[in-house]
Amino acid sequence: MDEEYDVIVLGTGLTECILSGLLSVDGHKVLHMDRNDYYGGDSASLNLTQLYQKFRQSEPPANLNLGRDRDYAVDLIPKFILSSGELTRMLVHTDVTRYLEFKVIAGSYVYRDGKISKVPSTEMEAVRSPLMGLFEKRRARNFFQYLQNWREDDPATHQGLDINKCTMKDVYYKFGLEAGTQDFIGHAMALWLDDDYKTKPARPTIDRIILYTQSMARYGKSPYIYPLYGLGELPQAFARLSAIYGGTYMLDKKIEKINVDEDGKFVGVTSGGETVKAKKVIGDPSYFGAGQELDESGGQVRVIETGKVVRAICILKHPIPGTDDADSAQIIIPQNQVGRKNDIYIAAVSAAHNVAAKDVWIAMVSTIVETSVPEREILPGLQLLGSVIDKFVSITPLYAPTSDGTNDNIFITKSYDATSHFETVVEDVSDVWQRVKGEKLVLKKREVEVEA
Length: 452
Prior knowledge:
This protein is of the alpha/beta class. It has helices spanning 14-25, 48-56, 86-94, 123-128, 134-149, 168-175, 179-189, 203-219, 233-244, 374-377, 379-382, 423-437, and strands spanning 4-10, 30-33, 45-46, 74-75, 81-82, 102-104, 108-112, 115-118, 224-227, 248-250, 255-260, 266-271, 274-283, 303-316, 329-333, 344-350, 361-368, 390-401, 410-412.
């Protein structure tokens, strides 16, 4: 503990592990600490006994016949990886892929008019899709062809639209797309969390749709991949990477104090009565007062609550009805469809991913809390699952830092949101990197290939 480090990282959630891995590769001397004796923090994967202990303080009931403990790796925070997205680029850039195996998620679905339909992954599926009537299919095809042909430097491909200036609403209007089609394009493909994007410049939305279609084209069934043995494998893989580049790991270390000098700048961390020095600290909100009442001395408020997520981890003994017996699926319920402000997400995986016993599916339903009865808010999602053997519901506050950290060298990550993909996590990684380093995160240009 008597060495001095460039950066101390607190918490082994995925965001923190990616950052410590990237910083170690970049030549920084990193010390990574966690109060828990396991990796993953909020993004850990639990076996069956750990799951029941965490939510019920009990053993798994024998009468449910759920199989062996070690067959399970249940994610606390369900997320899938876009196969051409930023997280895949980070995995490839850092070579972390050599520690992991991936499998393609069988299908991506959207809820519309009371039932679920597959988001079309080929032109044939689009032609047969019940999501659109005959004329709407023609309009949608024109829209997707426009995206396919669009070239920045060729105005002839722009069809009179300046997507850097006009809104997404204007683009939808130009192609005459119906509200329901806008719903599945904006929420199931561009993966926006609400409808605010429609009144903003169209470019980010179009970039997201293109990323989705590229990801879809890569493996054919869906745009998502997922690591065998659960998401808890991801933080561990980045931790291994950091260790290869000289990063030091200490688990089971209670953090007693974050030390600052008289100017309020970070100087070190005290754990077990010993203090270790560093120039900067990165950590998740739980290390910086999340959920704690301010003491009498009025310590600095470093994080604020921005909302809450309700999640239900459900154990099923059948695939989700309407998914063609898929071994895994993502289902998005756009907020408009159920009179909400926020989408509801369902992520389902099974024994095919080595995260559950044979013939067992784990389905997670999550959304941002909008009312005083959060569990009622996920009902539209729970009702799609069929019979549920057991379920574990949690309501988790979301925290964000109150300052960017550049004045005090204390850089705090955000809590994990309700989305069932990693794009928002990666945005946070890039944002923290820029604050810590004062420069944009540039990933090596490599062919993004992941075996799945």
